[in-house]
Amino acid sequence: MSGADLLARDAGLLWHPYAPLDAGALYGVLGARGACLDLDNGSGPRTVVDGMASWWSAVHGYGHPELDAAAKAQVDEFSHVMFGGLTHAPAVELAESLTRIAPAGLEHVFLADSGSISVEVALKIALQYQAAVHRPARQRFLALRGGYHGDTSAAMSVCDPVDGLHSAFPGLVAEQVFVPRPPAARLLAPADGDRLESAWEYDDAALAAWEGDLERIAAAEEGTLAGIVVEPVLQGAGGMHFYPPAALRALRRVADRWDLVLIADEIATGFGRTGRLWACDWAGVVPDLMCVGKALTGGYLTLAAVLCHERVARAVAASEHRAVLHGPTFMGNPLACRVAAASLGVLTRPDHDGGAAGWERAVTALHRGLGDALAPARALGSVRDVRVLGGVGVVELDRPVDVPAVTRAAVEAGAWVRPFRNLVYVMPPYVATGEEIARLGAAVVHAVGEVHG
């Protein structure tokens, strides 16, 4: 089927994320391999670098032989069985792999359908924990302004209440407690090597003032708070905001002081995207609950997980219900679990020299490559800032992005991007080559310059 046929049949039939029904799609996808997509809008196929990694999930690119083989092998055995009362090797092996690479103490795994659902589950566990330790009045959560944690009801409640995507639903979501977002930070240019150095630049006075606000608000509300929800170091859909790891340590201190459950939303930041396996690792912080998703299956299937600290799990196990009160139909789907286990194997395997893990060398190369490729955007009059963290590159404009125009200009120049607000950002697959990253950066700079000047 041609791209034109796809677009015509799609229009008015399918809703797309945060788009009007009659908006349709911009391109049809005819194929995908490596770090590239084959797109067509009726003018003929065009191969472009995927700057989005399918919304940050396809870290190994498309058509990876080991992930393909894992999916095919599991289909030949069984694609799905219920997880209530049953278990199977893919789920057990995935959970073993996750706890092996997770921060110390996160020893238990709840498998969920998607990132948003993993946040829902984590919020429930935090409430169950507080009830188990005889504090049932603690029903609210402390979250950061500028945060984004998903589109389901409880997840929406801990997103930014004003500038977030969910301010249209005041009667549906619970009212939570919010603190200002931490001040901006920048990871300094890395030295030569396979690992990014932990050298951050930020305003010390601004951070101290933020910590004062955090402690004041938490102290005033501590009797109602069950936990803290945070995207570590990088706020994604809330504005691609990088902040100091020291802020995460401050959140850990506040959580410890009031016995709040610290929930790290690593759905976008986990599996190496920021330059550490977990963004929490930048701060040396171990959360009580950690949500993972997106890259968990390498972008092949929907799957997420909540990793739970032994202390919290023990309290829930000793509580009235003894169980986590959630049970999705497709919990522990064998097909997704087997692909996810294969993906983790590829991700953590040492490189061909037996040195750093493959993701670490790849993401360090992305950091350098994106920094070089996006640097020319600083000369454009419409550009306010250019920043890079690991496999994340951001061009921030001084005005809202003309999304369709910039997208089309980028595709014409060889890259697929999906801007939002005033941001043109990229989070490409880890397998992207140096030449592909250079092409991606050049396409972004060209598109911004052509459309916005």
From TrEMBL:
Enzyme Commission no: 2.6.1.62
Pathway: Cofactor biosynthesis; biotin biosynthesis; 7,8-diaminononanoate from 8-amino-7-oxononanoate (SAM route): step 1/1
Compartments it resides in: Cytoplasm
Chain positions with N6-(pyridoxal phosphate)lysine modification: 294
UniProt-annotated site: Participates in the substrate recognition with KAPA and in a stacking interaction with the adenine ring of SAM, residues: 18
Binding residues for substrate: 55, 148, 294, 327, 418
Catalytic activity: (8S)-8-amino-7-oxononanoate + S-adenosyl-L-methionine = S-adenosyl-4-methylsulfanyl-2-oxobutanoate + (7R,8S)-7,8-diammoniononanoate
GO biological process, one term: biotin biosynthetic process
SUPFAM superfamilies membership: PLP-dependent transferases
GO molecular function annotations of the record: adenosylmethionine-8-amino-7-oxononanoate transaminase activity; pyridoxal phosphate binding
Residues involved in pyridoxal 5'-phosphate binding: 115-116, 265, 328-329
Keywords annotated in UniProt: Aminotransferase, Biotin biosynthesis, Cytoplasm, Pyridoxal phosphate, S-adenosyl-L-methionine, Transferase
EC class name: transferase
Top-level taxon: Bacteria
Role of this protein: Catalyzes the transfer of the alpha-amino group from S-adenosyl-L-methionine (SAM) to 7-keto-8-aminopelargonic acid (KAPA) to form 7,8-diaminopelargonic acid (DAPA). It is the only aminotransferase known to utilize SAM as an amino donor.
The family this protein is said to belong to: Belongs to the class-III pyridoxal-phosphate-dependent aminotransferase family. BioA subfamily.
Description of how the protein assembles with itself and partners: Homodimer.
Protein name: Adenosylmethionine-8-amino-7-oxononanoate aminotransferase
Organism: Zhihengliuella halotolerans
